[in-house]
Structure formats: C-alpha cells, structure tokens
Amino acid sequence: MELINTFAGSPVNRMGNERRNKDWLRQKMDDPNTGFLPLWQLRALMMPGENLRISWCQKQEVMPFITAGATVVFLGQINGIPHFTVDVSASSDQKANAPLQDYGKWIDVRSAAASCSGPDAAILAQSRSMLDWHARHGFCSVCGQPSRLGEGGYNRKCTDDDCAAMHFPRTDPVTIMLVLDDEDNCLLGRQKFFAPNSYSALAGFMEPGETIEETARREVFEEVGIRVGEVRYIFSQPWPFPSSLMMGCLAQAE
Hints:
By secondary structure, this protein is of the alpha+beta class. Helices cover 22% and strands 31% of the residues. Strands 1, 2, 3, 4, 5 and 6 form a six-stranded mixed sheet that branches. Strands 10, 11, 12, 13 and 14 form a five-stranded mixed sheet that branches. The protein has a three-stranded antiparallel sheet with strand order 7-8-9, with no helix packed on it.
C-alpha cells in the first residue's frame, strides 16, 4: 500500500491539455461554480475550527484583485469543478489590513497543513509553490525583459519577440535520509532555531550529475563526517518551501 505523505495525494485533475486553450480557461474562470483560493503573502485563507479547511471564494469576491493585476493560476478540476488560486498580496503589506478577513483567517501553509485534511494540504502546496514561483520570475532570465504568464500559469514567456524564451515552474530535488547503523540506531540532527526536543533526518539538495544515492552519501559525510554505504529509496514528498521534491531514503552507515 502506497504511503501518502503530507502535501501529497492531491484530488486535483490538472487538465494539462485543456489548460493550453485560453478560451477554455476563460470559460472555467466564469463558471459560477468555480472556486478561488486566495493567498496573501503566501498565507492561505482558511476557515478556522477544530479542523482547518480551505476558504474557497467566488469570482466576485476576488475580482477586484484580478482586475488590479493579481496573478491567477489554474489549479485544475476537482470532481469536474474548476479551481484557481489568486495572489492578493499587493492589496496590503500589513496583517491588520489584510484583505478578505470576513471570509476566513490567513494562516501559514506549513501551520495549516498540520490541522487540515490531506487533500487540502496538497492543494495548499500546489498553490503556494506556483504563486511563489510567479512572484520570483516576472522577468526573463535570458534577456531581462518582462515575461508573461501562459497555460493557466504553468509557464511564462518572454515578451521580447526576438527572445521569446519559455520558462517553466521549477521543482528542486532534495534527498532526505534516515541513517541507520547495524543495530538500527538512527542518526538525527537539529539546528539551533529548532524548537526544544525537535530533531530531523539529514537532508540536502541534489547537485547536477548526481544520483539520489550519491547525494545521500555526500550530504551525510559533509554534515556529520559519516560514510554511508547502501542507500535505499523509500518514497517522496512535495515540499512547498518554496518548491522542492523530498526523496526519502534509508542509508546504512559503514
């Protein structure tokens, strides 16, 4: 049985072929059943309670932000109903004046994921990663000219016709490994900003030309000076801070 980690298990059908059609996207945005998830400074609008849940808005509630130029990304369809996410950060930089407070509470995605359903957490991960990428990539990395959102948010194209470079949302591969010895003792680490009694498996970004196994061995040696032999991949997890794919492994200390 497959283990579904936090931020995985999304119910969204991303409609990869259909979203290339601007008219189709426009129809979905105008659908009266369409839901919009606002993010403000990468915080999600959530309905408070014992179990948090996404506060989906209707188009008329987010239209002032869209008209003002807010970034809108098509998430996909859930049971045939279109869903988008919209960045309303430009409306205010002060939490006291944050918009849409009548519709829910602005909560950091990492905190929200601990108290909401798995499917909602996966939607939050997709929304946060996509809007954060667009906020960081408003200009072409080839020529420096402005870039324009395309395919519902799944690419950006340089506005300079002579350049016309295409840019796509990036996902950074990270290896996270639990190091074991021959007696099944495990190696954990902590950083000085961790909460008391909090520890983590070791982790690090893959570098060009590395395999998952090679990354695990290099990172463990760099961080704690221990040589690792066998490395066995177990499962993966999206990590939207800002946009990584964590590849979990078991590693055997030599």
